Amino acid sequence: MADTMLRTSGVSMEPPRQSALEKFRADYFGRPSDVILTLGGTALLVYIGWTLFQWAILDAAFSADVGPKACEAKAGACWSVIAARWRLMFFGLYPYEEHWRSGLACAIAIGVAILSCVPYFWAAKRLAIAWVLGFAAFVILMRGGIFGLSEVTEEQWGGLSLTIFIFAAVALIGMPLSILLALMRRSSTPFVSVPVGLLIDTVRSLPLITILFTVAVVVPILVPSWLQGEKLYRVIAGMALFFAAYQAEIIRSGIQSLSSGQDEAGRTLGLTYWQRMIYIVLPQAFRRALPPTINQMVITFKETSLIIIVGLFEFLASGNAAYGSGEWAFAYVEVYVFIAFVYFVFVFSLSRYGAYLERRMRIAQH
Amino acid sequence: MTRDRLVTLLASRHFQAVVAAIVVVVLAGLIYAGQQELMAKGIVSGFDFLWRSTGWDIGFSLIPYSISDPYWKVLLIGLMNTLFLGFAGLALATLVGVLVGVARTSHNPVLNAIGTIYVETFRNVPLILQAFFWYAVYTHLPPPRRAIEFGDAIFLSARGIYLPGFNISNGAIAICAVLLVVGIVAALWLISSRRLTGWAEARRLPLAGLALVVAAIAIFLVGEAGRIADQPVISMPELRGLNIRGGLRLTSEFAALLTAMSLYGGAYLGEIIRAGFLSIPKGQIEAAKALGFRPFHIFTLVRLPLAIRAILPTLTNQYVWLIKATTLGIAVGFSDFFLVISTSINQSGQTVELLLILMGGFLLINYTIGTVMNAINRSIAIKGQGTRK
Questions:
Q1: pLDDT confidence of residue B387
Q2: In angstroms, what is the C-alpha Rg of chain B?
Q3: Contact at CB, B110 and A28, closer than 8 angstroms
Q4: CA-to-CA dists, residue A159 to A94, A141, A311, A330, B299, angstroms
Q5: Minimal Cα distance from B31: which residue of A?
Q6: Which of A125, A97, A121 is nearest to A111 (CA)?
Q7: Nearest CB to B4; choose among A214, A272, A316
Q8: Predicted-assembly ipTM surpassing the 0.85 threshold
Q9: Among chain B residues, CA nearest to A26
């Protein structure tokens, strides 16, 4: 008896430590089914990866000098179509000599978006100033007419810069509108809360395309011509309303997740409704609603591609035009892959940022 | 006026009432202006146009249609097409989603990586771009005479994709599809419901199996009743002359939308399913292990029921979203509800009425999916957990 006790006391009671190699073997080849999955999966990945690499790099034509005929004869991808048509895809029908303006405007818009991801700018005032200034610079560069820039009207805007313009305008109008809608829906006056609730729920139950179609095609039938305005701005208004309806619900859930004590404390201090909202409720609600807000931004950026339906010449539409014309018609896969890649870069980085924020907030809570 | 007084004024009820009154006046003015505009264009309002014949053709219809048919029939066909594409898309997307979700929750790193690559690729590219891509791919396929064949059963050609079909009437196939859904839902309910007690609870799996068998028999009987006489049950596509005859033809438009919806939707559903499985507390599984449950039973009796409860509410939203995505039909020319409405607006000019029908149609679809899914959700929710929905 005493012997066994002695012996056990000498044994370490810690679980056996796994070496890296053992862990690798357990993860990848632990069970017979794992052996099959690991080997089969790796083979599949290698096969797809190699095929893609061969198609996109090894056998591909890159130079703009390679004509459509020679390019079509190649076994791999024909990136020459991009080299030949990239200006059309990025700038649309914007005057050729002025492309630098469109490009610079895009760079400014992307710069503002990146800046607003930095914690230093996470204050309503700084954020608002950055966006309004950036947006103004964007419009001045694109539209011209002052500072010696020649005027380029909205019908000539196109390509990626139009996509970015619409996205930025929708965010800029939609964000304040969504706060307003969220607060109005929570209003104690049924006169305000019921119609706003109805509006939000109706907009949310409709597909975005039907709203775009209504503002772009139906409104001109219904509204006298002096009230119509440019189609581009009607589309932006429609998308902003759609964005605001979803974002309002996100903010509302953020507000509701706050403990009621926050608002009550504000009341006892004698703060007015707007003071409580601006200094106490909204900042906290926004912080809680940040991950779904970023998610909504991601979705909105992807959804700007839908405006091709109503005949605006945005990035996807100019991509269609880039291969649609005769000689490059065979190169549709390359054009779509390239457009997809550009969207991927924007959307993926935005969604990674959202995931980073979520992690950061989870740590901050503990 | 000081700033404080202004703030108080803005918050007061009188001010809000004034805002409401302004909104009402503006809306009334818009409606009045719209009516004036329509009258000036000589358009008569009302729903009488629904009984006028259309005079135009549509690309895809599940029921017979001719250009002399009235507007209401075109709208009905559009709604049926939306539901058809929607449910086919939901079914395929769910299948893809389950596969991806299982791959991403797998402990095998390679399988996990494949799932991750899939999700990141398809989720970060706009759906309409994917629809355009697949439409371009399907219309660039070789002509029927040189169609790509898979074992004499599947033909891929520029005129569409041909699959083996059934020589059964469309109505009977629709009933069979409904029966299949009912059977699967009933089986899932039997596996995970908390309503069952005592005798029934111990026989969950056999009862679920029985539900599936009953559904299968019912499907067989309905199919047998709806068979087109003097034809083999399965109709195989085959090349005759310049064209492919027999079988089930999916038009390029339908196939493109279906592919895009199931791949894109599958990526989102996979994430929802993964989140559902990850939300299960570890202790539940460890408890089942400690009780000596086998892996199969841990999955069917513990993990799956708990995961389904966590998944269903988000799944409802995603399903509604996917059905709404059928409106992309207008991008490639598939006659879904929205395309039919927009063509009708162009042809008849009955803008307001058709927009109301459009809104009504989507409200009905959303409401139906929401009600059905919420009913399932309620019936399997763990009782006594208060507000957890």
A1: 43
A2: 26
A3: yes
A4: 9, 15, 13, 21, 50
A5: A222
A6: A121
A7: A272
A8: no
A9: B108
